[in-house]
Amino acid sequence: MADAAHTRRIIVAISGASGAVYGARLLQVLQGQSGIETHLVVSDAGWRNLQHELDMDRPAVEALAHRVHDVANVGAAIASGSFQCHAMVVAPCSMRTLAAIAHGLADNLLTRAADVALKERRRLVLMVRESPLHLTHLRNMVAVTEMGGIICPPLPAFYLRPQTVGEVVDYSVARVLDLIDVPHDLAPRWQGLELNAP
């Protein structure tokens, strides 16, 4: 780990929506980055999905982060605005978690840390996962956007012609890394199309 004075802290939260792979993959990529310290918080449903979708037990997930915080511990360091943090990503973000953030409920450590990110004007990225969307979902997304958060659904980029599920996942994680200013070579960048001459 880099010197504390030059370390960027990033909070990674995993909620109970399908798509636990996005949070796990983001942690894996950040683990390999110098100068970054990750703080992980996982909801109860998030732990269940990590096990169900990825066959990852709690120790395996916790090993990917520098610090792990219990979702019920609202007294943790990341619950305070005085905790210096570069960005927070909720990957994936359930509609329940989105709603709590949109309405400032701060009813657990995950939603409190997101509330802090908004009030301190720090980068907050929500990888929302649901389809189809009803009006309340859409309004909650608008509310978070108006407060300065970024709604970043994990959507495939078929123009890059992905060949595996892993490539689809990496593209969405790469977009998040761009949003939180973390350099990477996780996915190819669009170079444009050459139009054929008539």
UniProtKB/TrEMBL annotation:
The answer to whether UniProt assigns keyword Transferase to this entry is yes
| Biological role | Flavin prenyltransferase that catalyzes the synthesis of the prenylated FMN cofactor (prenyl-FMN) for 4-hydroxy-3-polyprenylbenzoic acid decarboxylase UbiD. The prenyltransferase is metal-independent and links a dimethylallyl moiety from dimethylallyl monophosphate (DMAP) to the flavin N5 and C6 atoms of FMN.
> Which branch of life, at top level?
Bacteria
Q: Which family does it belong to?
A: Belongs to the UbiX/PAD1 family.
Q: Which reaction does it catalyse?
A: dimethylallyl phosphate + FMNH2 = prenylated FMNH2 + phosphate
Residues of the Flavoprotein domain: 9-178
Keywords recorded for this protein, A-Z: Flavoprotein, FMN, Prenyltransferase, Transferase
Protein name as it appears in the record: Flavin prenyltransferase UbiX
Enzyme nomenclature, EC number: 2.5.1.129
Q: Which residues bind dimethylallyl phosphate per the record?
A: 159, 175
Q: Which InterPro entries match?
A: Flavin_trans-like, Flavoprotein, UbiX-like
Q: What class of enzyme is it?
A: transferase
Keyword match Transport: no
Binding, FMN: 16-18, 43, 94-97, 129
